[in-house]
Design goal:
The structure is a homodimer. Chain A is α+β, with helices and mostly antiparallel strands. The first copy, chain A, has helices at about 15-35, 60-65; strands spanning about 1-10, 35-45, 50-55, 75-80, 80. Chain A is built from two helices and five strands, in the order βαββαββ. In chain A, β2 and β3 (about 50-55) form a beta hairpin.
Chain lengths: ~80, ~80
């Protein structure tokens, strides 16, 4: 499993409730797709959302978003290094 | 204090040691500038580094990077929402 940071643009006005719903939806399907959602951070003003996930591949991160009914990320980067 | 996600581009080949040195440098000056470094994640392949910091403003996040001798981020977004 590798850690991935994905980035969503164009989500201006996202609320705490919407972010929480996205988290719940991801947690509900993460075992099915073989991923583990860790965290998400959102900037409602610029419309940017960052999600941190453990998964086997970029494709699995994509699937996690698709199956949880969320917006598909604009960028997905593996982040093998962290401190 | 607000949480900020900043993004660095062009850091291809960054190593675990360099990321760790950046963390140590940030921790050494964070009180002086009034910030708190939380985490950083790096993708050596695309050269992208994400840093999560608590600070009073974008300017303080900028100062934290400048005074710790690190690369100044290309983007700084406040991320008031998190899950």
């Amino acid at each position: 499993m590798t850690r991935f940071m994905d980035v969503h643009h164009g989500m201006q006005g996202i609320t705490a409730e919407q972010l929480q719903q996205g988290r719940q939806a991801a947690l509900a399907v993460e075992r099915e797709v073989g991923a583990h959602f860790e965290h998400a951070w959102a900037d409602p003003e610029s419309g940017t959302v960052y999600c941190l996930t453990e998964a086997a591949s970029t494709e699995v991160v994509q699937q996690l978003h698709e199956r949880s009914g969320g917006n598909v990320p604009d960028e997905i980067h593996s982040v093998p290094l962290s401190v």
